[in-house]
Each structure stands twice: as structure tokens, then as C-alpha cells.
Design goal:
This protein has 3 helices and 7 strands, in the order E-H-H-E-E-E-E-E-E-H. By secondary structure, it is of the alpha+beta class. The chain has 2 domains: 16-70; 73-148, PH-domain like, CATH 2.30.29. Strands 1-2-3-4 form a 4-stranded antiparallel β-sheet, with helices on one face. It is elongated. The two termini are 30 Å apart.
């Protein structure tokens, strides 16, 4: 097997959680719209108005937005460093700050091991993605190795 190229930037996104997050968000919105429409036609003894229906749809949109946060993880890596964006904020590290690119046994996603026994999870590289995760780890490890390799002296 040939070594992955280290001169091209790498962008990694999870596939399975991306698809499931979008499917779940669409399902939630559709479900809340159906519930909102049925509120006025069902005789429950409570009087629902248009404002109640709109509130139910807006609630569904908020829940769907929360689900879509699971589609947000991304890793961008190049020769200088790596940027990890999980559900929250993105963090950029140079390769010299990274001790190791690891994927612990039984873990759901990969991580960057940092000095002083700290680590940064990379939710974009997930075990559920199978071979895509393996390829991503190979590319990230090749970039890390190339960046931290001591310079050849003459």
C-alpha cells in the first residue's frame, strides 16, 4: 500500500452521523408540523389557536437545530497543523503541539494526544464510519509524522 500524500490538505467529516442527524432533523420537523396541524382538528377539550400551532412548529425547529449540531464536526489538517471542530468551537493546533494521533480501543472517535496527558477528541473521525475512519487516520498520522520528523542535516 502506498503512503498517503502529505502535501495536500485533509478535510474529514463524519458520514454516518451526518446522515442520521439530517434524517432525524427532517423527521422531527415533519412530526411537529403534523402535530401542529392536528391540534386544531382534534377534540381534546382544549382550545388551540394559531399561535399554539406556530409555537409547536418553532419548538420542532429548535429540536431539529439541536440535532443538526451532530452534523457539525470537522477536521482540517495540513502540513502546518490541524483544526478540530466538534459540536462547539473550533481549535487550531500546530503539529508540534500534538504528541500523537490516536484511536483508543473501544473509543467512538479518534483523538489528538497533547502534552501533560491532555487530549482533544476528534468527533469527525468516528469508528462507525469504518474504512473512511481508517483512511482518515492514515492521512492524519502521515501529516503528523512529516511535520514532526527531524530535519535531515548534511
Amino acid at each position: 500500500m502506498t503512503a498517503p500524500p502529505v502535501d495536500t490538505p485533509v478535510v474529514i467529516r463524519p458520514r454516518r452521523s451526518f446522515v442520521l442527524a439530517w434524517a432525524g432533523a427532517v423527521l422531527v420537523v415533519a412530526l411537529f408540523v403534523v402535530i401542529a396541524v392536528l391540534l386544531r382538528t382534534t377534540d381534546t377539550g382544549v382550545f388551540f389557536r394559531l399561535a399554539d400551532q406556530v409555537a409547536v412548529v418553532v419548538l420542532g425547529l429548535f429540536i431539529a437545530g439541536g440535532l443538526l449540531l451532530l452534523a457539525r464536526p470537522r477536521v482540517r489538517a495540513d502540513a502546518e497543523g490541524v483544526e478540530v471542530r466538534n459540536i462547539g468551537l473550533a481549535r487550531r493546533l500546530s503539529w508540534t503541539e500534538v504528541v500523537r494521533v490516536g484511536f483508543p480501543d473501544g473509543a467512538s472517535w479518534a483523538r489528538l494526544d497533547l502534552p501533560d496527558y491532555e487530549y482533544l477528541p476528534m468527533m469527525a473521525v468516528q469508528s462507525a464510519d469504518g474504512q473512511r475512519a481508517v483512511d482518515a487516520m492514515r492521512r492524519l498520522r502521515a501529516l503528523h509524522a512529516a511535520a514532526t520528523r527531524p530535519a535531515a542535516t548534511d
